[in-house]
Amino acid sequence: MENKNVKAVILAAGKGTRMKSDLPKVLHPIYGKPLVGYVIDAAKKTGIIDESIVVVGHGAEKVEEFVEGYDENSKCVLQSPQRGTGDAVAKANPLLEDFDGTVVILYGDTPLVTPETLNDFIKQHHESGAALTVMSAIFDDPTNYGRIVRNADGSLKCITEEKDTTPEEKKIKEINAGLYCLDKKVIFPLFSELKCNNAQGEYYLTDIVALTIAKGLKAEAYVLQNNEEIYGINSKANLAEATKILNKRTNDKLLAEGVTIVDPDTAYISPDTTIGRDTIIFPNVYISGKNTIGEHCKIGPFAHIRDGATIGDNVRIGNFVEIKKSVVKSNTNVSHLSYIGDSELGEHVNIGAGTITANYDPVLKTKTKTIIKDGANTGSNSVLVAPVTMHENSMCAAGSVVTKDVEANALALTRSPLKVFSDWVTNRLQKGKSN
Ligand code: UD1
Ligand code: CA
Fold first, then answer.
1. Known active-site residue 304
2. Residue 1 has pLDDT above 90, yes or no
3. 315 lines ligand 1 (CB under 6 A)
4. pLDDT (tens digit, 9 = 90+) per residue, 346-382?
């Protein structure tokens, strides 16, 4: 049963009123990647979930546009109106018509779940032979969560939503995390039996537990070890907290892999960035998106790597430097106050302080490339107007505006000649006094 087909259904139709935002909740980004992207990635990284079906509703078009552009193995299905979590899962049914395997249900607003936990969850589900496994967690404060109600012998009985609990049930600290593994062929037919006669008038996915048991089928709980993994985003404060949790996780991993992080509290590093050992991350560095950074580099303090950077070994990215969609090969320095965008920098390149690659044409709204080949140097405060190439070992002088390719070993210079006016200051002072 281990290698049985597994697919994910990701619930993402809800409104997210408390975000107080024009953006659909699941599209709020952490390090540039929308929340639902984290969930899709976690499913994918299990190595056994081969497809995700995302149930969209509020802001459906925008969510769909993201999902379909993000991952070729993900599809969307519309739930309109939103009549509850049970109704949402049922909407995925047409896309799973011929599927005979395990369905894992996830939430699009719960981005911190890890592939390791999902694998463990699926493993328990397969090994126990249960038709349905619900993920639970023990919370000191279970307020607002569905409660896991068990029989005297400890076996699962049902899930009761906060608004429908008895005073006794309210005290239960084992909560429903909202993630489920289920046997598609056995459980999906039960969705048509869900009723909405509850406090919220919704079709509750949670009722599927009691229904499963009533049919004489086996339902179990998987108790989560690390509660952080089911941290859900309902507000901007939650989003900030999730970013912190994620950051701690990423930095701990990088430290364990041999990256030096001077101050992990101010090293903001996206989880999709790989960094080689002995690279030093100085304080106040912000790295978002997907990037690769090699070994023995020095990054920061105060550096911003935006997305799509491939940085070799022994590279220096210094203070107030921004790098975006660029390749920087080994032994190259971009030490101070520079913007490098849509560029390719070779090896042993030295970028002078204040160098700017002018990659954007604001009239045509297009971006073009700057190529700086091995051994080339730019003088301080130079502007390279893309598309432009500086060939091997070429130079441009400080203050130059480079609008044409520079051949190998040549110097490019655009500068009005320096004039020196002798005694200008003395004369000026004397003139001032005689007035
Ligand atoms: C749900 C569970 C609760 C559990 C909690 C964990 C139900 C009835 N309750 O409650 O037991 O403790 O999650 O966080 O399932 N969604 C849709 N369509 C809908 C309604 C919801 O796609 O019609 C999506 C939401 O976007 C969200 C997820 O389902 O991603 C959960 O919905 P939400 O309304 O937050 O459920 P809770 O009330 O938190
Ligand atoms: Ca919720």
1. no
2. no
3. no
4. 999 999 999 999 999 999 999 999 999 999 999 999 9
* Torsional sign, CA 260, 266, 267, 272: positive
Q: What is the 297 CA–ligand 2 centroid distance (Å)?
A: 42
Distance 234 CA to ligand 2 centre (A): 7
| Domain boundaries, given as residue ranges, for the chain | 6-230, 236-412
How is domain 6-230 classified at the CATH fold level? Spore Coat Polysaccharide Biosynthesis Protein SpsA; Chain A (3.90.550)
| Separation of alpha carbons 298 and 282, rounded Å | 7
| Residue pLDDT, tens place only, 397-417 | 999 999 999 999 999 999 999
Determine which one of 58, 125, 336, 391 is catalytic. Answer: 336
Q: Could you tell me the distance, in angstroms and rounded to a whole number, from the CA of residue 204 to the centre of ligand 1?
A: 8
Tell me which of 17, 58, 85, 231 to substitute to probe ligand 1's pocket, judged by most ligand atoms within 8 Å of the beta carbon. 85
What is the fold, at CATH topology level, of the domain defined by 236-412? UDP N-Acetylglucosamine Acyltransferase; domain 1 (2.160.10)
Q: Residue of the nearest CA to atom 34 in ligand 1?
A: 14
Helices (H), 353-435: 424-434
